[in-house]
Specification:
- The protein is α/β, with parallel strands linked by helices and 147 residues long.
- It has a single domain, classed as Response regulator (Rossmann fold, 3-Layer(aba) Sandwich).
- 38% of the residues lie in helices and 17% in strands.
- It is built from five helices and five strands, in the order βαβαβαβαβα.
- The chain has a five-stranded parallel β-sheet, sandwiched between helices.
- β4, α4 and β5 form a beta-alpha-beta unit.
- The two termini are 13 Å apart.
Amino acid sequence: MFESYDINNPAEILLVEDDPGDVELTRETLNQSKIIIKLNVVNNGVDAIKYLRKESPYQNAERPDLILLDLNLPKKDGREVLKDIRSDENIKSIPVVILTTSEAEEDILKSYNLGANCFVTKPLGLKEFSKVVTALEDFWFAVVKLP
């Protein structure tokens, strides 16, 4: 599946994350990817929904192939964002990976009940975080058939 993503047709990922360090680490890890990835970033839940619905200022946004969603976000938390995504016919088929620091059973269950495709707890170390992002990329773009 790697060959289907190239410079003219990059894999589109929307990262919804408010921690600049996690954004930068994700960006650096994906830049080392075997496939061409375009990482788009918004740092709050309100902008995530605007981006996905192509509302101002995101009218020209590309539909993401995958959403990496933090739970603890300003303006609208990740649970609310996930609920909005799954209730919108135009965007509900986009796979959503919860990528968060939470290990709470309640967050895991609620995320799956709201329609998350998977739940990943962010490791604290930089090397471990990079391994997780690489594993997500390999799985979602080399193994899974995306809509």
